[in-house]
Design goal:
Helix content is 36%, strand content 23%. The longest helix has 19 residues. The protein starts with a strand and ends in an 18-residue tail after the last helix. It binds 6-O-phosphono-alpha-D-glucopyranose (G6P).
């Protein structure tokens, strides 16, 4: 949520900042701004809307020679929390003297009281933002040492922040600080960068330092000085990024979302690589750091997450119960943190998150730890807050996911949850023979996904017939129920079609009242044990004139009942959730494309939600 990039070095800062903002745009795109610094002071540019609008503005206002002369700057792309997405509310924000400016990701919770105090001291606020309370507070403390002023201001601040701060009086440094919102420093040759996400640094350097909560750093072209809140120097290790610039480019696809959908045979292969023991019918998940005895002693698993990650957890719930015979439940992370959950040391909490930054999931982890429960992370972004807070778990290795709507992270999460179920199962009731069967099926996942991707053109045609409707229903049973929820979420996120996901048996208990002739109902009909029931539910919809789009296992279509068919490869019900999800991702993508929507950056959304 909100993207930050800063640069200090010898190269022109503007293109580096703009390039970084474009990479970070998925974090928020209501407005953007940047501040450039030279011996004459600070110059700022702000624009409402996407980074492209800011670029237009810069082009009109700065001569090429002037661009060349700035070698220090900070920039920001915003997802509005406090104050509408206007130019005035766009970052950077200034202190009273207008010699200090700040870009900020997070929320200053006590901004009202700071604001009132400062107003009494004669400050007149320009914006409605919480950030301006901080920038002005830093100015109040400034006595010639920017780092000290930031330290002192932050001592009065409650909330979450990742910040980068510039002072016109100290043009040779950027001060950065982190608490609750990520910041990573990139170290180049005679230059330093800072960003809220390593993907913005990858074209410039592979050497990074992840800041921890409470860290305050000063970066110059050739030094990084990090201190804690008590102003004591601390050492943070340098990590090598395992990312190449190509991973954050569109690579010939029209949208990141489509590229990421098509990457799934590879991303799932990466999630599975070295983790399947085909002969033992088991999985190898060293990151769980658990002995067979510890695994066997777990009484219950609780899967927590938000959004798409929550839906992955719901598939995991079925897998853990079915494969491992272990009691399992899923909880929305925001709910878990406030409901006083009944958990103890026999339980295992699995926190699922693509970004590893989601504030509610992070808080749920802390709550579970407080209660003495073991917590594992199931995370995509290495070095993220959740990965570090959990300390153990499994990375899904999906690579950077840029499109706001999550696709390859979901399939990676489900694939790893299936591996976890296999491992838990083999530590208790699952026989080697059945373990081998499941392991072989999981191992086939890249090909099973390919089978669906080959139907891209056919799915685009189904989408054409569906795109005219403003409503859609997705129904499924068993592990296909969360897939139905995920299919509906994808469609509403990117196409703004009102979509509902339901358990197939639940439709007749109310939602069926909404069906009118022609309403698309996407029926996930591959569950062999309850297949007849699902078809009955589809019949009920058909009888009301619904347009039935069936997602069926190869050879099991009911042509008399269905208007459109998407075919899934033959596989068991748990593994089938992954190809089915891929089919629904493509369907949502094409509907959104036909409706002319902003696919990678849907309105009002942000990729990582670092606020409650
Ligand atoms: C946001 C994103 C969703 C995502 C959810 C959880 O709402 O828009 O796509 O599923 O956060 O994110 P996480 O990074 O924790 O998986």
């Amino acid at each position: 949520m909100c993207g930050i990039i800063g640069y200090i070095g010898t190269r022109p800062a503007t293109p580096i900042l703009i390039g970084g903002l474009k990479r970070l745009e998925y974090r928020g795109y209501d407005s953007a701004g940047l501040a450039l610094l030279d011996k004459n002071g600070l110059t700022t540019f702000k624009a409402v809307g996407k980074v492209a609008r800011l670029v237009d503005k810069l082009r009109g206002d700065l001569s090429p020679e002037k661009h060349e002369s700035y070698t220090v700057g900070i920039a920001h792309t915003r997802w509005a929390t406090h104050g509408a997405p206007t130019e005035i509310n766009a970052h950077p924000h200034f202190d009273k003297s207008r010699k200090i400016c700040v870009v900020h990701n997070g929320i200053i919770e006590n901004y009202r009281s700071i604001r009132e105090k400062l107003q009494k001291l004669g400050h007149k606020f320009d914006s409605d933002t919480d950030t301006e309370a901080l920038s002005r507070l830093i100015g109040v403390h400034y006595k010639g040492d920017l780092r000290l002023a930031v330290v002192q201001a932050l001592q009065q601040v409650e909330g979450a922040y990742g910040i980068a701060v510039l002072s016109a009086d100290e043009p040779n440094k950027i001060v950065v600080a982190r608490k609750g919102s990520p910041l990573v420093i990139g170290m180049g040759d005679g230059e330093c960068l800072v960003a809220s996400d390593a993907s913005a640094l990858v074209s410039h350097t592979q050497r990074v330092i992840y800041l921890d909560d409470g860290d305050i750093g000063v970066i110059t072209p050739d030094s990084v000085d990090i201190r804690n809140q008590d102003d004591e120097p601390i050492t943070r290790g340098i990590s090598e990024l395992d990312l190449d610039a190509g991973a954050v480019e569109k690579g010939g696809f029209e949208h990141f979302m489509l590229k990421e959908i098509f990457e799934q045979p590879e991303s799932v292969r990466n999630a599975l690589r070295g983790r399947i023991d085909l002969s033992e019918g088991n999985s190898v998940l060293a990151g769980m750091q658990m002995s067979p005895k510890e695994l066997a002693e777990i009484h219950r698993t609780i899967l927590v997450g938000c959004g798409t990650s929550l839906h992955a957890g719901m598939v995991g719930e079925y897998a853990f119960e079915d494969v491992a015979g272990i009691s399992s439940e899923v909880q929305q992370a925001a709910e878990f943190r406030y409901r006083n959950p009944i958990v103890d040391h026999h339980d295992m909490v699995i926190a699922i998150s693509q970004s590893g930054e989601t504030a509610d999931t992070l808080a749920a982890i802390r709550k579970a730890k407080e209660k003495g429960t073991m917590v594992l992370g199931l995370v995509n972004v290495v070095g993220s807050a959740i990965a570090r807070e959990t300390g153990r778990g499994v990375f899904i290795h999906a690579g950077p996911e840029i499109s706001v709507a999550s696709t390859k992270a979901f399939t990676g999460q489900v694939a790893v949850l299936l591996l976890m179920a296999l491992k838990l199962g083999r530590s208790r009731r699952l026989s080697q023979e059945h373990g081998v069967d499941l392991a072989q099926e999981i191992n086939q996942l890249p090909e099973l996904i390919d089978f669906v991707l080959k139907q891209n053109d056919a799915i685009a045609k189904v989408a054409e017939r569906m795109a005219k409707s403003d409503h859609a229903f997705f129904i499924g049973r068993g592990p296909m129920h969360p897939v139905a929820l995920e299919g509906a979420l994808k469609l509403k996120e990117i196409s703004y079609v009102h979509a509902e996901g339901y358990h197939a048996a639940e439709l007749k208990h109310g939602p069926i009242a909404l069906l009118t002739p022609g309403t698309p109902v996407i029926v996930l009909a591959n569950q062999t044990s309850v297949l007849d029931k699902v078809w009955s539910n589809a019949e009920e919809c058909k009888a009301r004139g619904a347009h039935i789009i069936a997602v069926v296992t190869e050879g099991h279509a009911k042509t008399d009942l269905t208007d459109d068919i998407i075919v899934l490869p033959k596989c068991g019900p748990l593994v089938a959730t992954i190809p089915a999800a891929v089919a629904l991702q493509l369907l949502a993508y094409h509907v959104a494309r036909i409706r002319g929507c902003s696919i990678d950056q849907p309105r009002n959304l942000a990729k990582s939600v670092t606020v409650e």
